[in-house]
Amino acid sequence: MVEAVVHFIKSAVDSPGWTTFFMSMLPVTELRLSIPWAVTIGGMPWPSAFAISIAGNFLITIPIVYLLGPASDFLRRWKYGDIFLNWLFARTRRKGTLIEKIEFVGLMLFVGIPLPMTGAWTGAIAAFVFGLGNKRALLAIMAGLLISATIVTVLTISGTALFLHFSS
Fold it and tell me: What is the 3-state secondary structure (H, E, C) of the chain?
């Protein structure tokens, strides 16, 4: 599925920079895949891949952080929206003990660990669930993205990032 999404984006924009930017915005790929793709397949220098991936991943986070509350209120008006959000938020509470305990630093570390189901999208949901506040959440997410992008870039340059992604 990830390969199909990447192919679709690549064929739609036909530019390694824009492909990297849009890949980093998606919840499935984020910068965990956009950086390795940009450097190894897109042929971009790592500093460009690093900056573009952080920009795209952070840019999509801003509306998520600010619109999650109003979207939640809107969806809760319907039975299935309420069921889905109860499931999503309960799951987030179970997985977010680190964030609940140490808030800002916990969210930063949660976003900064480049593993599946940790990243800016999930971090934005966790910040909402645990009531971190929009500005603090965005600062913690940006710090986490810098950590994550650094780890992914080092793994990419050392040749291990694509192996890790496709072996899981």
Answer: CHHHHHHHHHHHHCCHHHHHHHHHHCCCCHHHHHHHHHHHHCCCCHHHHHHHHHHHHHHHHHHHHHHHHHHHHHHCCCHHHHHHHHHHHHHHHHHCHHHHHHHHHHHHHHHHCCCCCCCHHHHHHHHHHCCCCHHHHHHHHHHHHHHHHHHHHHHHHCCCHHHHHHHC
The ranges assigned to domains in the chain are 2-167
Task: Extract the tokens encoding 31.
Answer: 């910068």
Q: What is the pLDDT along the chain (168 residues), one digit of tens a residue?
A: 667 767 777 777 779 999 999 999 999 899 999 999 999 999 999 999 999 999 999 999 999 999 999 999 999 999 999 999 999 888 888 877 778 778 899 999 999 999 888 899 999 999 998 989 999 999 999 999 999 999 999 999 987 655 445 444
- Which candidate, 92, 32, 88, places its Cα nearest to that of 57? 32
Q: Which two tokens stand for residue 108?
A: 């930063």
Residue 14 tokens read as: 């036909």
- Could you tell me if 160 and 42 are in contact, meaning their C-beta atoms sit under 8 angstroms apart? no
Question: How is residue 113 written in tokens?
Answer: 């660990």
For the question of whether the overall pTM of this predicted structure is more than 0.70, the answer is yes
